[in-house]
Amino acid sequence: MNLKEQIVKEKLPQHVAIIMDGNGRWAKGKGKFRIFGHQHGVTAVRETAEACAELGVKYLTLYAFSTENWSRPQAEVNALMDLLVKTIQKELPTLNKNNIRLDAIGHLESLPDSCRKNLDDAIKETSSNDGMTLVLALSYSAKWDITKAVKQIAEDVFNGQLKSDDINDQLITKYLSTHNIPEPELLIRTSGELRISNFLLWEIAYSELYFTDILWPDFRRDDLYRAILDYQKRERRFGKTSEQTSS
Ligand code: IPE
Ligand code: IPE
Ligand code: MG
């Protein structure tokens, strides 16, 4: 049985989130500039999105550019923004072919105008697709999102629209930019780094974490299947005992 056939449909994660890391090291290993790695990362994005959609995963969130990534050399930031515009344009037919709806989270106002426009257009043009939702995290960081939510909650309490007693887990979730997306059951990070780098801190409270040494440009369908198979072997206890969970 190949890897894909081993996946149990009934235990498929609804939402997979990925920290796509290792593009720079992949390029360096080949004696090329970092952007070469980013360019090749696009193939991995296409393969992963298609594979998730085929399996029936409902949401795929990709960490494409963090708030902290703005501190990279200007030339790399520009090249990444340029790549984003070109990729969105080029991949639009593939998204439609695979019935994938595009969405984005992050401080999108800080993206260059051309980028923002392309993104908005692609979001509109795929809005009626109802297979999988592909969420791009752009100029995103979890602390940015949580800070924004806290400010809005404070304002709503001040305006009398909300009582401080109403503030609970569910309410905070509603104020985050991920409010209409279920929490990811599975979070994957490539490139061997064992950290979260300010991604979805609130939403991954109970996610299963999967780390692989594979550098993002080398990530293919079988690597995704391996991550899902690993996830399916785990017992998600949510604070309960193993006996309670299996009964
Ligand atoms: C991930 O690859 C892509 C982005 C953060 C935009 P990196 O560019 O971080 O690659 P490494 O970690 O330097 O190898
Ligand atoms: C995290 O990768 C951000 C993205 C994948 C977009 P980084 O490469 O920026 O993370 P750190 O800085 O090594 O933690
Ligand atoms: Mg990195």
Notes on the protein architecture:
The protein has about 250 residues and is an alpha/beta fold. The chain has a domain of about 170 residues: Decaprenyl diphosphate synthase-like (Undecaprenyl pyrophosphate synthetase, 3-Layer(aba) Sandwich). Helices cover about 45% and strands about 15% of the residues. The protein has 9 helices and 6 strands. Helix 5 links the parallel strand 3 and strand 4. Helix 2 crosses helix 3 and helix 4 runs parallel beside helix 5. The longest helix has 24 residues. The structure holds 3-methylbut-3-enyl trihydrogen diphosphate (2 copies) and magnesium ion. One 3-methylbut-3-enyl trihydrogen diphosphate (IPE) binds next to helix 2.
Q: Which ligands appear in the coordinates?
A: 3-methylbut-3-enyl trihydrogen diphosphate, magnesium ion
Query: Judging from the principal axes of the Cα atoms, what is the shape?
Result: globular
Number of strands: 6
Distance between the termini: 29 Å
Enumerate the spans where pLDDT stays under 50 for 5 or more consecutive residues.
none
Per CATH, what is the topology of the domain at 17-141 and 187-233? Undecaprenyl pyrophosphate synthetase
Strand order of the largest sheet: 3-4-2-1-5-6
CATH architecture of the domain at 17-141 and 187-233: 3-Layer(aba) Sandwich
Radius of gyration: 19 Å
CATH class membership of the domain at 17-141 and 187-233: Alpha Beta
CATH homologous superfamily designation of the domain at 17-141 and 187-233: Decaprenyl diphosphate synthase-like
- Percentage of residues in strands: 5-15%
